[in-house]
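Subject: complex prediction, re-run

Hi both,

The earlier run crashed halfway through, so I resubmitted it with identical inputs.
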Amino acid sequence: MNTGHVISGVGHIGLIGWMFLGGFINPQPTPFEVTEVAVISGAEFQAMIDARQAPAEITETAQPAAPVVTPDAPEVDAEPEPAEPETPPPVPEVAEETPQEPPTPEETPVPEVSEVAPEAPEPPAEVTVETPEVAERPVERPADRIAPTPAPAPEEDVRPSETAEPAVTPEDTGETVEPPREAAVVPEATDRTVTEADESPKAAVTASRRPPARRPEPPAPRRVAETPTPAAPTESDTDAAVQAALDSALSSATADVPTGPPLSSGEKDALRLAVQGCWVVDPGAQSAGVTVTIAMSMEQNGTVVQSSLRMIGSEGGDAGAVDAAFQSARRAILRCQKGGYDLPADKYGQWQEIEMTFNPERMRIR
Amino acid sequence: MTFKFPAIVLMGALALSACTNPDRFGGQGGFGSGNPTGGAPLNGVVPGSANDPASSAYFQQAVGDRVLFQVDQSNLTPEGQATLDGQAAWLMTNMNYQAVIEGHADEQGTREYNLALGARRANAAREYLISRGVPAARLTTISYGKERPIEICSNEACYSKNRRAVTVLAGGLTS
Amino acid sequence: MSMRLMIVGLALVASFGLSRGLEAEPLRITIEEGIIEPLPIAIPDFQAETGEAGQLSRDIARVVAQDLTGTGLFREIPASAFISTVSDFGAAVQYADWKAINAQALVTGAVSVTGGNVNVKFRLYDVFSGAELGAGLQFSGTTEGWRRMAHKVADEVYSRITGEGKYFDSRVVYVSETGPKDDRKKRLAIMDYDGANVQFLTDSSSIVLAPRFSPDGNRILYTSYESGFPRIYVLDIGSVQRRVLESGEGTMSFAPRFSPSGQTVVFSLTTGGNTDIYTMDIASGQTVRLTNTPSIETAPSFSPDGNQIVFESDRSGSQQLYIMSSTGGEATRISFGAGRYGTPVWSPRGDLVAFTKQNAGRFHIGVMRLDGSEERLLTASFLDEGPTWAPNGRVIMFARETQGEGGASSLYTVDVTGRVLKPVRTPEGGSDPSWSPLQK
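This time it finished cleanly. Structure:
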């Protein structure tokens, strides 16, 4: 080596070393400090875990916790408050994580996070109540009734939200630059991007659909289960839904149902347009590769029998994507009905049952 | 206690880098010598001024320590070859100098590719010097890719000066 | 419509037919046009269940909201529009009130603090279905790590609604930069994916480049000039200890990446001006040369299954992308568009390759399928480069350098659709980002 370098180097070493120890080379929180914190937290975390023995795989267990029913059944609405120190069953998962954390406490400035199911408010029993209501034509509506009224107003309220939104977001983000808030809709936020995309003529013409992964036999059993939470806690969600639909069908059958001629293409288009206006598609998502078909029963006033909504088929995507696709379609149907879809009353028999297929193929990015 | 250890390790590394650290002066001429590109005055740390034909300052300024390249190229231009001829002659008469040839690229390119491209350029210069009789053992190469531009504007006037191979002398007093 | 679907449909129809006698078949409608817009979501401040949780309960809700709206897929409804307030985490949700303001989803949560620990629980509601979406969950950790818990909540919400994988609870290692172009100081830094909690891992005494996470997120590979020459180092994030991986005399090594197993490193080695791709077994130090051409081969990246490597080469005369077996051998060119392609990175989903493209004086971040089809440019600027994938393969982070004498580099993210482009806030400039896997 070069003596000159060495000499100056030695000097530098001393100086820099001193500075380093002095701590002002690195004004930011050094990893060391973090380490310390992490270590402590690890221990504490451990202790905490031991102490409370939080339930691990809660997710599944907690299922019932979702007192979803409440909304539909106002009477039931007594939603139990979660008991704070609920005695959760010891969680194996946590144990797993725990050991892991300690060893590498320093490396993770971030504290350990345990996934635990929150205390599940006792719900189940009451929930059951819901089902019956669904069956009853008239009774079922109560919940919806509330909605319809304010429904018109909503639109207005929403507007303001949007306006306010942009202002808030940028600030939160910090940088005002290119806030993508509304970008999803309008290219303005990401003008360049759009331009570029357009520029590339290379873009393949065909949208190669994702290889249809294994199709879940019982489409989105999860989702369904959560939604109606029928009496049967089993995966008979579908059955429950069907049952409900049948019930409603029966009850309506009893009534005098005008069938009339098939809907004209114009009438069908009107329905299609009404729903697609609320169908939000995320073209970049895996769910954009999923086609779902949803069946539903309709009230004579054009509203959807909510409990009858069910997925009867899907194509493409994994379970998560299918689930998301179903939810998105369901939201579209429920959201755009407002006070009821505009369908010819004299042809009720023709649209009492509807199957809607949502195919995002043409909306996928390519 | 846990955190002292890394601190020591880091310190050691700092010390190491402080003593070699060629990138500190990469692209700006030899160690302790004048800065050929900026306004920094020549300092007197290194014996021998630009008027001393055996000095590194002379090498930089009179002989020319760098050759430039075309966009995305590592072929030597006629001017570059002429400069390297001068360098070879100088190195052959000043045998106690080692040289590190630094290859550089302009900012128009991805980081990894520019590193590789800089290496090509440095190597092209080295091969040429060897072909002119400079012992290979005296010449090493390094690439800085686009990490050490000497000109900072974003147009060809600057880019053309950044696409370079700079011969940096080392070890003038020792071997 | 698939056969199976038809059958299912028919079966249902049949069952209805029985009970309804003469009723006709269901009305069938197919919808192929939707709208692309952010989903309105309400995220009221979380409930503070203990006195000390007051600030955190608000902060956590804010971070959850930032995570979600930052994707461009959600739009937060301002609290000023709320009709009902959530005063009790366990109370029944007044769906009508949320419907009225067109909130399609509602997130409620509660925070409690005991000592140095914080517990966060949340519930997600699908407002128009009038039902909870998935089960409630809770997370606990230290108060210092509250942001992680917020990210975990946001991840759950994001994943349940979009069906996409999670990615908020992740980190990014990158090169923090200061100073002008001709005197730029670089040091390694690590931060949360959103730019929070930045910590420096090295000083800026030598050039450091292109850090890359190990598959377990515990180690980082990077290139440093600290020996005087570019060499690959591996750094343990926890201890901040590092060691040089490769140090052949007269060579330089760079562009390292871990294999999915974490046991092998693929990198570029330059000898005599020629750059080729090698792999090294980390434990034994044994190297294998994968390419052997006079051209430049660099920027290698493993496929998620570890069987293939995508890399760039100028063997055709300009930088293009190629795929070869992870043991070397014949390579297949996949990029054929105008311009030059570099820095390919295989997506975690395995279906796309992100790259940097240079064409007509502009730089782009883009993606293409493995056969080079469906090339899509997501960005365009004076200089964009170095894409890295979020753990879910949905978002890409990259560095953008501005033009001219005052040019500086900073980090951005772009959604794989190209619709959502936004800066990542860092205390200094940034380049060469590498996204970690989802944290455990």
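Residues 17-162 of chain C form a domain with the Rossmann fold fold (CATH 3.40.50.10070).

- K.
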